[in-house]
Specification:
This protein is α+β, with helices and mostly antiparallel strands. It contains 23 helices and 23 strands.
Amino acid sequence: MFGEDDLVRQHKGRGDLIGNIIVGCFILILARLWYLQIYQGDLFYQFSIENQLRKEIIKAPRGMIFSRNSELLTHNIPRFDAIIIPQYLKSKTFTLKKLANVLEMSVADIEKILKKNRGQARYRPVTIKKNISLKEVSIIETENSKMPGVRVQTFISREYRDGETGAHLLGYISEINQRQLPRYRNRDGYDYKLGDFIGQAGIEEKFDLQLRGDDGFEFVEVDARGRMRRNIRSNALFSGIENKEAVPGNNIRLTVDRDMQIAAFKALEEKVGSAVAVDVNTGEILAMVSRPAFDPTKFSKGLTKEYWSSLVNDERNPLRDRTIQEHYAPGSTFKTFTAIAALEEKIVTAEQELKCGGTYRLGRRVYHDWKRGGHGLTNVYKALRRSVDVYFYQIATQLDIDILAKYAKMFGFGEKTGISLSRETSGLIPTKEWKKKRSGEDWQLGETLSCVIGQSYVLATPLQLAMAYATIGNGGTLYKPYLIKEIFSNSGEIIEEAKPTELGKVEVSKESLKAVQRGLYEVVNNRRGTAYWYRGIGLEMAGKTGTAQVRSMSSKELFSRCEDMPYKDRHHGIFVGYAPYDNPKVAVAAVVEHGCHGSSAAAPVVRDVITTYMKKYMPEAHAKNSEKQRREYRKMLQERKRKEEAKKKREEALQAQEASLSQTGESEE
């Protein structure tokens, strides 16, 4: 048996170990307390302060867009949204029920929205309802203490002054979606979040980074339920916390003239088509309109399913920008460039006359002119003035398709213009190589006959047509079209200023250009010209009508009345012109889908746009031309009156002679 001393000795080592462990634990606790309260005290004090704060994002106002004459085209309008911050959501059932009553929604709908955003951080706000009324705002703010986590958030909504008029050109902004997030983050280097607005089309999309600005933030003191107590600026306790001011986006001044834009939009009313106006000597876009259109403001304020469905289900494709995204067979407007190629290649001279009947036979196939009886002897001026198909068919037999393509591409056809808008199409100018790659077949001469009159494979956008005719008008310089005149900051500092860019000079003689210029003048100003009766008052315009078939037609269908055809089978009407003829300043192209005739459908659109330009920028020339045309019109009326009087006198003389003969016969009897 051990004694007490032996027992104490036996357990003494264990007691010393336990004591050392206890002392060591106290030392560790003291060291940790020293580390937290002394060494890291300032940092954790800062954390404790920030736990009382909430970071409020201050959205930067989006930059404004102006016309060339500094007219405001966009507005920034305050918008109020009801949001929930899940982190502060207490008494969920009661809060959601109360909020549902205020917003006239069901609790199930609110829970569905919260569930959809469950994957994001709980401190990030979830938008429950956009564009709430001022009444709803006041109720939420008044009842805020009873609905912890529910707040009203202010956004700056985009409003477009002229509604649908500039829809495709200006574009629109809308919320970024889940699918777009990674793509736009990689593209722009921004930490985009769901709920952020970005440019999705037009100028808004292409210059989004310039327009969007830099968001700021502000810290506010909150209680345990997330309710705001006060701004930290009024509390010295938070002197180390700094807010950040929002920096507004840069502003953009366009080259576009608002009055011309409105004129083009009105001229296309009830039509499906587009119009483009450009400065002949710089390449500035003066107007760019596509119809039907959409209301871009509805995208900014929160697009409804009903409105989106009405757009995507509309067979006229109102979301598509027809000025650059659609390409058409240019029809007879392309004959101008066929004429240039023929003159340059010495196939014909300007004065040389070809016999042009109503048809032209190539092998077994018969090609018809638009006029049954033909046009008789025709030179290049008459060929353009009367749009004589058979004249160009005869040229086609001597004009290699690759040569035609060479001249067409000089004027910008077959390639994108490079305008600063997305989704531009290049159109098409066919070549032998292109067809071989496409179908594995050789080029046929009959295909050239269709191409020289702007049919078959030849495709062009309205913008390409406008730029090509601008090149003819200015004497041979092809410009790159541009929309942005300048970008400037909110303080007025010029950040970027655009200047005209020459893409090249066409390798065409002055004589050939003058010949086609004269022909284009006669189209509008000669009484036998295809657009004479649509030229407008005060304009000395040059241009070319075009009628583009949308499908192959038999000879019977070809000469049937277009307006009696089913809508989808009717020809497209095209007109391209520039003015004034002797000192060109503006060129305009218009396409009216299924409009039947370039003269009656598209020429009035061009006329109205150019008239707006002349009255605004060249009023003296417009007045002078108006008086000249009035004199010509009075002279024409006097001439007609003299002819009618002479005809009447002849008829009276004939009647008198017949009466005299009748009396003589009666007397002899």
